[in-house]
Automatic annotation (TrEMBL):
GO MF entries: metal ion binding; metallocarboxypeptidase activity
Needed co-factor(s): Zn(2+)
UniProt similarity note: Belongs to the peptidase M32 family.
Superkingdom assignment: Bacteria
Source organism phylogeny: Bacteria, Candidatus Woeseibacteriota
PANTHER family noted in UniProt: CARBOXYPEPTIDASE 1, METAL-DEPENDENT CARBOXYPEPTIDASE
Role this protein plays: Broad specificity carboxypetidase that releases amino acids sequentially from the C-terminus, including neutral, aromatic, polar and basic residues.
Alphabetized SUPFAM superfamilies for the sequence: Metalloproteases ('zincins'), catalytic domain
Keywords per UniProt: Carboxypeptidase, Hydrolase, Metal-binding, Metalloprotease, Protease, Zinc
Official protein name in the record: Metal-dependent carboxypeptidase
E.C. number: 3.4.17.19
GO BP annotation list: proteolysis
Pfam families listed in its UniProt record: Peptidase_M32
């Protein structure tokens, strides 16, 4: 069956290719900025990207195109994919119609500069250097919320930008539901005789070249066309971007010790890449190609990270390569498994384990909400951060770069994104359960990829998260991940 056949939709898709081409170009410029661009290219790149975003807005607001979109919103008897196109474009239209072009341009400029200032502040461990920029970023986000509109909290308007329909009303109860069980679980782990505040493999050094070969080997094993439609590069922070479903890029990082960070990042980003690689080819260059729900996307990356990358079978398969890469070997499967699955309170979100990770997100959710709703002040942020991390994890940062300055998100203007990480992780476990219920084994990666393609990836962004779950006869249930964590870690820590 053809996904697109309605005349109005075909006209929309034809014009949309211009917008797609601009996004495609911006994506390459962003990818290059994070990977290979010499540092001094930053200001010209910022200018070019800022102008591209303004051109895109102007083209989107073309009178004839907007008229087509309005006409399409009343159409009946559309295919699911056609309805998806209308839904996604009307969301963008709302954004472009409500935010003045000058506001979008100013915001782009502000965040390009702020990222550079944030890097300096982080290097110098001084929040004060970044405070003024951050203050402007939150002010502009508050302003954006007013432009976009909301019913209850202004933070809702920002959450919705990253996950369609997400509100404080939904995120608040989710965190309330998981907080106590996770605290109890962490307490049990900390009381276990097997609890270690450090693991010897964390400080074991590795050879960077060999690590990069190991990462390539893992990706080749998971995706046979690795190198042909999919590549791996290095950046300051791992990420995935897709230019088309035949050209997907991921990155990882190398710290020359603590090899799990590099390896798990590769497997995590592979999960994101797979979503785009397996999106139906007919959806390419349309608004529904690839995944747009961040919760769904993160469910895929966490699925591969937690259920493949952290599994005994996977470690066993690559143990000879790990031993060949990491100094101080040979290590046993048990050594590596206990290292990859260690749980302990830590200061950095990106290093956090499956149990404590969500406390890092709760803290950010409370802070962002408090700032947007006007209950917190940026000038108090360092103190607020430090007291909250102490409340959740019982530890306090020694400096700002392992505290309030650790994440890049705010410097890029992103407020309202963090909750999708936790929600996505919880959803990833539900997909694992569905797969296991279908009598499939997680170690049979080819079967798993097909299952994920058929149930999730092929649709791209055709459905909202809620509709995608309904289509698969699922509903979001935090209890599934809580039960999995309890079972897994009671075995590892023997309680
Ligand atoms: Mg991710």
């Amino acid at each position: 069956m053809k996904p697109f056949k309605n005349k109005t939709i075909l006209q929309i898709l034809d014009y949309y290719k211009n917008l797609w081409a601009l996004s495609y170009t911006s994506a390459i410029a962003h990818w290059d900025l994070e990977t290979y661009m010499p540092q001094k290219g930053a200001s010209a790149r910022g200018e070019a990207l800022g102008r591209l975003s303004v051109i895109r807005q102007k083209m989107f607001l073309d009178k004839d195109f907007v008229a087509l979109l309005h006409a399409a919103s009343g159409l009946e008897h559309l295919t699911d994919q056609e309805r998806g196109v209308v839904r996604i474009l009307l969301r963008s239209l709302k954004y472009y119609e409500k935010l003045p072009p000058k506001f979008i341009e100013d915001f782009e400029r502000l965040t390009n500069t702020a990222t550079v200032i944030w890097r300096e502040a982080k290097e110098k461990n001084d929040f004060k250097i970044f405070e003024k920029s951050l203050s402007k970023i939150f002010d502009m986000n508050k302003q954006a919320a007013e432009y976009l509109g909301y019913t209850d909290s202004p933070y809702d308007a920002l959450l919705d930008q990253y996950e369609e329909g997400l509100t404080v009303e939904k995120v608040g109860p989710f965190f309330a539901e998981i907080r106590e069980p996770l605290e109890t679980l962490l307490e049990k782990i900390k009381r276990s005789d097997l609890f270690q505040s450090t693991h010897p493999l964390e400080s074991a050094k590795y050879d960077k070249q060999k690590m990069s070969e190991l990462n390539d080997k893992v990706l080749k094993y998971l995706w046979k066309d690795f190198g042909q439609n999919f590549r791996l590069d290095t950046s300051a922070h791992p990420f995935t971007t897709s230019f088309s479903n035949q050209d997907t890029r991921i990155t990882t990082w190398y710290h020359e010790r603590d090899f799990g960070r590099s390896l798990l990042a590769v497997i995590h980003e592979f999960g994101h890449a797979l979503y785009d690689l397996q999106s139906a080819p007919e959806l390419e260059m349309t608004p529904v190609g690839g995944g747009s729900s961040l919760v769904t996307h993160e469910s895929q990356s966490r699925f591969w990270e937690n259920f493949v990358g952290r599994s005994e079978e996977f470690i066993e398969k690559f143990l000879p390569d790990i031993n060949n890469t990491v100094h101080g070997s040979p290590f046993t499967v048990h050594d590596v498994y206990s290292y990859i699955n260690k749980v302990r309170p830590s200061l950095l979100r990106v290093e956090a384990d499956e149990v404590t990770y969500h406390f890092h997100i709760m803290l950010r959710f409370e802070i962002e909400r408090g700032l947007i709703e006007g209950r917190f002040k940026i000038s108090d942020l360092r103190e607020i951060w430090n007291s909250k991390i102490k409340e959740y994890l019982g530890i306090v940062p020694k400096n700002d770069s392992e505290g309030v300055l650790q994440d890049i998100h705010w410097s890029g203007g992103t407020v309202g994104y963090f909750p999708t990480y936790s929600l996505g992780t919880f959803l990833g476990t539900q997909f694992e359960q569905e797969i296991v219920n279908c009598k499939l084994k997680i170690v049979n990666y080819e079967d798993i990829k097909l299952w994920l393609r058929d149930h999730v990836h092929q649709y791209g962004s055709t459905y909202t998260l809620e509709d995608l779950l309904a289509k698969n006869k699922m509903r979001f249930d935090p209890g599934v991940n809580l039960k999995y964590l309890e079972e897994k870690y009671s075995k590892i820590y023997d309680f």
